[in-house]
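## Example pair
The file below holds two records. Each record gives the amino-acid sequence first, followed by its structure token line.
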Amino acid sequence: MAPRLAAHGARRALLAVSTTCAHPWLAAARRPPSLAARALSCPSEPGARAASSSSSSSSSPASSSSASAATSVAFVGLGNMGLPMALNLLRKGRCDIVAVDLSDSSVARLQAEAAALAALPQTTPAAPAPPRVVRASTPRAALEEHPGVSAVVTMLPATRHARDVYEDERDGVLAGLEARRRRRSGSGGPPPAQSSVLLCDCSTVSPSFSRALAARVPPPHLLVDAPVSGGTPAARAGALTFMVGGSAAACAAASPLLAIMGSRAVRCGGNGAGHAAKVANNLALAVQYAGTCEALALGARCGVDPLLLSRDVFAASSADSWTVRAYSPVPGAVPGSPAYDGGYVAGFGAPLMVKDLALALELAEEVGAPAPLARAARALYERVVAAARERGADPRRVDFSRVYVDVYGGGGGGGGGGGGGGETRHG
């Protein structure tokens, strides 16, 4: 049975995740050497702490290999992206996980994976203990009741959910850090030095929220915004790209953790810069994806097989893109994509794309940048959400790639609503 959670903001945020479908490091032996070369390289700043005190160059695999993963990681948000990321922390990083999520099935999946790892024969007597998975009722409980937690990773749907998880006065992450501080202060005698906790927000949220949150995180704790790109296939493969915002010290601390879950991490600037880069990236994706769908539909109406057009023409010409190679909207084109079997099951839900485009428009207004394509693209993906509701489907379970069907008719005509090509195979 799921642990009881208070009906506060942190609980509301976890409900949203469940329906969307920590930094002293371990010994080097706990981190696979193959991950060393993938660690994030951060420019040095005065007072910045390197991931390893013995490192002289962040670009050297030999020096990077002494960095390691967090002993215990609190993971908040085990949805379509969060669950495979947490699984990689278990499998590749051998991190203990304190899971914070309302989904019994997601937590059970992590626990089953931990049990499978524990059942493997130990190759040497000195092999590290297998990782464990426990469950906490709230973000605060994860920090207060589990003193070994040295990193918190969050993967949440929107800014309001991130605000609840971090700032809820009763159950949030900041409340957990404060509870730890009080516990140390009340232990009698001189309070021990407070160990640093790394806070790593992988959600796609407002850059201004991240900057404001950074101002509230008390030292010696560190915060990075590290939104991701690559979708669920890259999350499963541990091949995500992280766009990182934060101080050089925070980026260096986050580097080994991000290397377990991804293949590339780019420091974009201070706090909020990672989120700004992600919003810009998703704006480009949304516009590019809709344009690709429009071109495929045009070709299909002219008698060109859309599968051939996507796989054999676009992929070998100037129209080539990640959309065509990894996430084509044409059924049968890319194995493992939401469109492959004609189901268009998220994936990356259409409401999340609408949310990200709204973020892009808010950011454009804030900085005075023109964004006519963001507005046009948002209207297209809003039609995907509306079409799902008309069919009686849960929009959160509908991938954004279904814009190919609901706006452009799946290459067969009849777009603009619930009809069109591809409908017969929709689950």
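Second record, same layout:
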Amino acid sequence: MEPMALSDPSTSESTLPYLESIEPFCRLDRSRLTTLEPELLRIRAGDLLFRQGEPADALYVILEGSCQLSHADPDGTERPLATVGPGEILGETAALHAQPRVTTARASEESNILRLSRHALERLTSDAPETRQFFQELEARRQSSLQLALTTLFHGLDHRVFDGVTSEANWVRLRGGEVLFRQGDPSDSLYAVVHGRLQAVIQRADGAPPLIKPIPRGTCVGEMGVLTDKPRSATVKAVRDSELIRLPKAEFSTLLDRSPQIAAALAKTLAERLQAANQGTAVSIEPATIALVPGSRRVARALFGEQLADALNAVARPTLLLNPERLDQLLGRGSASVPFHSSANRRVVNWLNEQEDRYGYIVYDADPTWTVWTERCLRQADLVLLVHFADEPPAQGAVASRWLAQDQSPSVRTELVLLHDDHRPQPTGTQAWLKACVVDAHHHVRLTRMADYERLARFLTGRAISLVFSGGGARGFAHIGVIRAFREAGIPIDQIGGTSMGSLIAGHYALGHDIPSMTARVREGFLEQKLYLDTTIPLVALISAHKLVSMLKGMYGETNIEDLWTRYFCVSANLTRAEAMVHRDGPLWLGVRASISVPGVVPPVFHNGNLLVDGGVLNNLPADLARSIAPGRVIAVDVASKVDLTGPDATVPSLSGWRLLWSRLNPFGPKQDVPTIFHILTRSAMLTTISNAESVKTSADLYLQPPTQGISLFDWSALDQLVEAGYRYTIEQLEQWDHRSLAPKERRTS
């Protein structure tokens, strides 16, 4: 059925406010718009707007409702392409170039649509050249975006191989939470993500929890099903409002036939993905858009957004901060309050997408209450930050509660930022906040300390710098010297962690202890308290650990790991479950106590029915864990010797402890060079992971191995010598190393 046109002057006049809200017409004065003589078409669901192959005699602007675009194959099969809604312009390219229609458009529902004749459009572009430039830029942007997205898949092949294919490609827009296709659907197209972010959810046949994989901007999705001609292997939905380009299967096949090198490049890409999946390689996606949700008006007044944007500019890439006032200033009054169903919404969305192409990051500063602007911020976000003052009562906040209750919100990574007074010595009460807020991570930021904002910026953008320490008994004192060298070199440490003695030294840094204080505390603990005298009946271990617990509480007090300024973790081995346990919350002293519990020497920590022992049993240098917790650069420091604990040259199949004791007590007799049970048990606990040191060397961004050979595992008196050795060695290594490589400027999309 043909659409009904209402073309009386009063009706045409009433349509002008709609045009004035849509690019490029909003740039024109009303007198010029009046000469366009727009027609208002009211069409019912199923009515035809235009048909493929017909001469293009007009362009159309959707005011209310939506239209379904489709394309007919040579065999007559009509394939749906996309659904377009309010604010969308249809048919402008064909109308400007006097070309036949390449698609068919039908109303999906009852709709109001403006029709501008081709002659009126020609007059407009002649009188106002900026409008022709707008349409040309729109066409070029869509063409280049397709090429960008496709060449990301094909590793930068010559863009000319894609010429001629784009006429059949089409734009698809999804709202956050909307499904693109479902697992089991036919694979009829592949899609390139131009703006936004998607995720793939794979339901497993064994009933295990579904696998969730991120699909970032600039990548393709669905190509595997198109290549294999098999149903979709996953359900794909939009994490946030997204724009994609759809390339039908037939056109994709044309690309492969036209250029054999595409097939080779595609095979390489798919092989790399398969290898990463088989190796369990973590995929880290750098956010392009960050929404700040203030927990109160007090937070909104604290200028947190301005300082975060400055930090992102400093440590990463150019950043645009947007709040309602700023958007209205840049795009026109009232832009921040444009409702999503308004015809002007497309203009706002297009402008925001253009800024995403122009800047490295966009920071959306939301209102402290639920408004149209707040909803837009959250719907545009790759990452949501809930920002609260730490001294306020822990609560999710009204905006966050409403957002987290929505279906799409769990797909978006959400983190908590707690603001503190600059002079606060140590955060407290974080555990209560983590119970009140459903978040993936948390950060502590002092209100006006730029170093804290820069640390936050590195965490948010995958540029965190992690320092990881191995176990190694007394040799772990060398870690103190490494810290000193990094401080003097001005290299920030965003996250620190380790195993066994490495966990103990890392805990001091995370608490904020300086080098003299750190050295004094370990000297008192290991040299003056004489932990080895805390012996007991060796039914479980050689020592009781009473003195060890007292020492650790004296060092760290009752501080919890989640309350530390510097992010911290340590590793113990769970004997009950045969797996590594990563300690990221709870009492710091208890985490370290578990991490240094050498089996047989120190009693295990009994925790919730589990037996926790020295982390060196499973992971003596947890560089892999550091990267999985905080993507970025990892510096691994290894003080465990590959060769250690030598014995007599002759073969000794049996050994009497009594004779060994006598040889040591007798000042006149020969000495037997045999390691003690302390040395043997400690070395045995680390043996498995020491043998895996080569894999750590290749995975770490910087691998340091201070010279600790010749120093016994329990030679606590070598403290100063080891600190100095660690310092001198690290200074030499850093002089040969480009520190700037820690903060790359290039974008990492996967």
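Notes on the second record: The mean pLDDT is 82. The first helix runs from residue 9 to 19.
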